[in-house]
Amino acid sequence: MTRRLFPLLLVLLASVLTPVLLPAGSFALVPAPRKVVAGDGEFRIDPQVTAICYRDDRLAFGAAWLAGQLSRAFDREMEAVRVESAPARDSVLLELATGHDLPPAEGYRLEVTPQGATVSAGDPRGALYGAVTLLQLGPAEAFRNLALCDSIPGADPGEENRQGPRWHRVQFPPPAPIKVFTIPCVSVEDAPRFAWRGLLIDPARFYVSLEEMKRYVDIMLLHKLNTLQIHLTDGQGWRMEIQGFPALMTTGALGVGNQPGNVRVYPRAGSKPGGCYYYTQAELKDLVAYAGDRGVTIVPEIEMPGHTGALLRSYPELLCQGSGEIKPGNSICVGQERTYEVLSAILDEVMAVFPGRYIHLGTDECWRGNWEHCTHCRAKMRELGVTNTLALHGYFVERMSAYLRSKGRTAAGWDEIFETGNKPGILGMFWRGHSPEAVRLVERAAKQGQLLVMTPTTHCYLDYRQAEDLSNDPPGLGNSVVSLEKVYGFEPIPDYLAPELQRNVVGLQGNLWGEVLFSYPQMLYQTWPRACALAEVGWSSPAGRDYGEFLERLKQAHLDRLRAAGVTFREPGPEDAGRP
Ligand code: ACM
Ligand code: ZN
């Protein structure tokens, strides 16, 4: 070995042997902010002294949320107060920025000095995110009891919980309240990379209570995730009250979904028929408001024309002629006018409950075999002058999305929505990875100016298993592993998209399908910490992204935040250590 190579070898050896160090001033924030500059000293929040203030009524919720979380941390009541001007000291102030140097949408600036902390945001969501960052700068107890579910705060869930497989365990008991809450002096400038940072849950296959959905939203806020798609209907169950079609509740909503062996025993709401599991419109409106306050938009998914088994069990007259037995995968008859009347009336009720821009129509995995033989569908094909059922699917999608457009809404769908070409003003979700078919569809859709959310099975399917070794992990669905490292390595903008088309990619989404879920803790176990990785991919700059450093942030601080919040999660093991 030459003298010149020896020092180089020492450096290489040291880098292999030393654990990954967090960059100075990173503060283990998740998702990593755009810019953090560490200052000198610290600010101490004292529940008897510090005022939590806001200067604009639009920030009243954010300030109350922050005060509420600090109250849980100290186990002592703190309240938010409306002020006209910033107190000189001992305050945390949320304000909307003014002037021309406004933070981007959902962005914020956070200044912490020994005298106090100020969050200046471009909009209420940004203020909320500034408050989350402020809490993350403090001890893990800042998130104490944030997302407790299914038990009494502080109560031990008991021996049964301790004996259960780790993915069915409730994460308890919470840490003791704290007396001292200090945050380092810093200056943070932050804004998201993508506008759509979503998760999907699937109560059609695995029913969860309204409270559990609210707790799920709480945890999303902790990660600055802003969109929750709810798969409300499928062959296994119809989960939304539709007043014009009562059989959807008495027949479509029967049973908890895909799993007869569900480990949960659900309380039966007195107002609902026995054995029927659905959300009333009042409950869903409550959820929409709850999530909206926390910066989360709910996107309802009402599946059509495939995956309509629960609808067809309720209204068999919408089956194709000659279909015989109703199977979960049945597709609705798209040849009858009655189908369009029913679906439009259902969507009217859906739109009255969900005020967001997007209504998701599914459109995926539609089995079209029954359309081939149905008199109505064949007549419709003749009328349209088309010779194959794929074109009939295209007609159906075009007609239903035009209906939504006429009401001022936008249809979203899985990537099958683009199979028959451009549908103006539709948002498509790419789930079929990088198959040649998907690549062709992505390129064509982007060229036609359509908006894309990337959610490939390979990186974003949270129902897939998390590790190769299943001796201590639930099997999950799918035939591949979606590890934490894999998720963290996801790049939503495909390298084959020309630079001028890349802005059509508006974000990413993790999908937690419900077929193989058995408990709410398992739902969380499948989600976290993989969704921490997704949140960072959606929020933070890809420059310098390093899985080892991310894992270190999780281990040093973030998993403790989840523990304090009462969130069940999968502890990363040696298999998650990352490639050397
Ligand atoms: C899907 O997984 N069928 C969207
Ligand atoms: Zn038909």
Structural write-up:
This protein is an alpha/beta fold and 580 residues long. It folds into 2 domains: 16-188, Chitobiase/beta-hexosaminidase domain 2-like (Chitobiase, domain 2), CATH 3.30.379.10; 194-539 and 546-576, Glycosidases (TIM Barrel), CATH 3.20.20.80. It is 33% helix and 18% strand. The chain contains 18 helices and 19 strands. The strands form 4 sheets. It has an 8-stranded parallel beta barrel with strand order 8-9-12-13-14-15-16-19, surrounded by 6 helices. It has a 7-stranded mixed β-sheet with strand order 1-7-5-6-4-2-3, covered by helices on one side. A hairpin with a 2-residue loop joins strand 5 and strand 6 (116-121). The longest helix is centred in the C-terminal third of the chain and has 19 residues, at 547-565. The structure holds acetamide and zinc ion. Residues 364-365, 414, 431 line the site of acetamide (ACM). Residues 364-365, 414, 431 line the site of acetamide.
